[in-house]
Design brief:
By secondary structure, this protein is an alpha/beta fold. It contains 15 helices and 15 strands. It is globular, with a radius of gyration of 23 Å.
Length: about 425
């Protein structure tokens, strides 16, 4: 019997025929992507006995009972079928109400799409806006998924770095505006920022919005950490964003949604992962102008079809009943920050400033030229799991998620101090 024409590479190897390994790679744009150096450290050390993992952005607490119960109840009622591409109506309405309460405006279900995670929300936005060769600007340091995501679609990504000094991480606004040339497709801003905790001010947002309006540039706001801010809630800047409409009394970082009009090219990606401790649930949402949402419907169908119905029921419980959860979580994060940062500052060679938001300390270590090697050393020899700064852009820094107990944070700091003393030079 003759072999088929499309004989596999495996059978070619078996017969000893020479095969160029490059023919088995993905396309160049994907094969050339940098893998996550956070995962590189974590995958090498996961499961190690006694390890203290602070490398991922998640707490050491499980999702609250009432959120889990909503999913269990949904499963018990047999909600295991496909749903609307944009999400079940009760969840979309709950999200729209929540967004109006935080940011005012006229956000309705016509602006809301439910997604499988915040990262999925961003991926869908990237797919909707990017054509090969498009110019994209990102404010960095930044979670590597956000800079690599546009590159998957062959975008030309330009980075504007925050500056680190005695005041912490700050933005050179004029530098950003100068980089936002008229040929820029969109600017990607994550505030509060992962990994630095930098939080964009209202004045900075207003300047960027005005500039982008002038040149027709989209603003893609990653608002995953908007509730994780360690200051009082920002004052209302629009007459419809009054305290009486807020779903709770917790703080919220300044947002482009506070000042954008329905005609603005502003799209927001958000997630249930951070504010309600639901990292493993993979549920998020998009707030976008209705014309863009219509095209996002096609992308949702061709990417995920729809989010799981029982997970969406858990999302309803979180967004409608989870105010106290968010407030307690933010208080715990602030406490963890205030325990960890002073202790890190006591370690020789460490430069650190308390962040105003998010859940990370992103600090500089003198003499470190290879943060990936350092983090592998700390994990392998001292049972301490941290994320290398180079994964987010700048070398010589390390990220530490402080969503943990005092005991774990202080023990981790002691391990870091020991690990810096015996690290390879």
């Amino acid at each position: 019997m003759n072999a088929p024409a499309d004989i596999s590479a495996v059978s070619l190897y078996a017969e000893g025929a020479p095969v160029d390994a490059r023919t088995l790679y993905a396309r160049d744009g994907v094969h050339g992507l940098q893998g996550s150096k956070i995962r590189e450290v974590a995958n090498a050390a996961m499961g190690r006995e006694g390890l203290l993992p602070f490398w991922f952005g998640e707490p050491d607490q499980v999702t609250p009972d009432f959120i889990r119960a909503a999913a269990i109840e949904s499963l018990d009622h047999g909600e295991t079928f496909y749903t609307h591409s944009f999400g079940i109506p009760p969840l979309r309405e709950a999200i729209a109400t929540y967004v109006r309460g935080l940011h005012g405006g006229a956000t309705s279900v016509a602006n809301i799409a439910v997604t499988n995670s915040g990262m999925n929300a961003l991926t869908l936005i990237f797919q909707a806006l990017i054509a090969p060769g498009d110019r994209v600007v990102a404010v960095t340091p930044l979670w590597p998924n956000l800079t690599q995501g546009p590159k998957i679609l062959s975008a030309d990504v330009h980075m504007v770095s925050l500056d680190f000094g005695a005041a912490g991480w700050t933005l050179n606004l004029q530098k950003l505006l100068d980089t936002l040339t008229p040929d820029t497709r969109f600017v990607l801003i994550n505030s509060p920022n992962n990994p630095t905790g930098w939080t964009m001010s209202r004045a900075e947002q207003a300047a960027v919005l005005a500039h982008c309006r002038k040149h027709g540039i989209w603003i893609v706001a990653d608002d995953a950490y908007e509730r994780l801010v360690f200051t009082e809630g920002h004052p209302a800047t629009r007459p419809d964003a009054v305290p009486a409409t807020r779903p709770d009394t917790g703080a919220c970082a300044p947002s482009f949604l506070d000042i954008a009009t329905p005609e603005d090219r502003v799209v927001s990606a958000n997630t249930f992962s951070k504010s309600w401790m639901m990292t493993g649930w993979r549920l998020g949402w998009i707030v976008a102008p209705p014309p863009l949402l219509a095209d996002l419907a096609k992308l949702i169908e061709f990417n995920i079809c729809c989010a799981q119905s029982f997970v969406q029921r858990a999302g309803i419980a979180a967004v409608t009943k989870g105010a106290a959860v968010t407030q307690a979580f933010v208080a715990r994060l602030k406490h963890g920050r205030d325990v960890l940062v002073p202790r890190l500052a006591q370690i020789e060679g460490v430069s650190v400033v308390a962040p105003p938001g998010a859940m990370y300390a992103f600090f500089k270590i003198d003499g470190v030229g290879d943060s990936l090697a350092l983090c592998k050393h700390l994990a392998a020899n001292h049972g301490l799991g941290l994320a290398p700064g180079v994964a987010f852009g700048p070398e010589g820094y390390v990220r530490w998620c402080f969503a943990a107990s005092d005991e774990r944070l202080l023990e981790g700091a002691a391990r870091l101090e020991r690990g810096l003393k015996d690290r390879p030079r």
